[in-house]
Amino acid sequence: MSTKDKQLGSQPTPEERTAHVQALIERLTANSPIYNILLSSVQLISTTPGVVTTHLTLTPTHVNSRGSLHGAVSAAIVDFTTGLAIGAWDLRSTTGASVDMHLSYLSTAVVGDTLEMVATAERVGGSLAYTTVRISKLVDGGEPKLVTLGQHTKYVKLPGQSGMN
Fold first, then answer.
1. C-alpha to C-alpha distance for 39 and 36, rounded to whole angstroms
2. Where exactly are the structural domains of the chain?
3. What percent of the chain has pLDDT over 70?
4. Among 93, 69, 81, 54, residue whose Cα is nearest residue 152
5. Is the whole-model pTM more than 0.85?
6. How buried is residue 103: exposed, middle or buried, by Cβ count under 10 Å (0-12/13-18/19+)?
7. Which CATH number applies to 3-155?
8. Which residues contact 1 (CB under 8 A, 6 or more apart)?
């Protein structure tokens, strides 16, 4: 989508949005050692404006000494996936810097479990983006079981950008 199209308010196609988010995943995992170690196997499932669904199957790299999902991995997932949701909001190439993050650990997951992450950009303004993510464990034949809820505020103002989006 061209800059002129963005200025005129035309929306990207679903294919353009998906390709953009997939490119973000590839760039972020290639350029960030922690994302590369923890999240290089994330699979993009779907994208809509401001909402991204991804899956991750847990390996021994993702768990703590008790064999369950490490809290720091959950935090990395929240940081990563909420950035993707911001990118899906308006196809921006930068996903912002963390200002505040809150996680609630409700359950756990173990090696071999597949997590589904649904990240939502609730509001993307001129300076800040407010995002949420639900990390759930997929259960064969049943409803996903909620593992972690995350809220994340990111600073998203671009250099040279003024005022509000």
1. 6
2. 3-155
3. 92
4. 81
5. yes
6. middle
7. 3.10.129.10
8. 10, 12, 16, 91
pLDDT tens-digit map of 103-126: 999 999 999 999 999 999 999 999
Residue 67, Cα to own-chain centre: how many angstroms? Answer: 24
Residues 6+ apart with CB under 8 A from 94: 156, 158
**60-109 pLDDT tens trace:** 999 999 999 999 999 999 999 999 999 999 999 999 999 999 999 999 99
What pLDDT shows up at residue 131?
Answer: 99
CA distances from 30 to 37, 46, 70, 134 (A): 10, 21, 22, 24
Judge contact between 49 and 88, C-beta under 8 A: yes
Evaluate the CA torsion angle 77, 144, 102, 128 in order and state its sign: positive
- Beta carbons within 10 angstroms of residue 131's beta carbon: 28
C-beta separation of 77 from 54 below 8 A: no
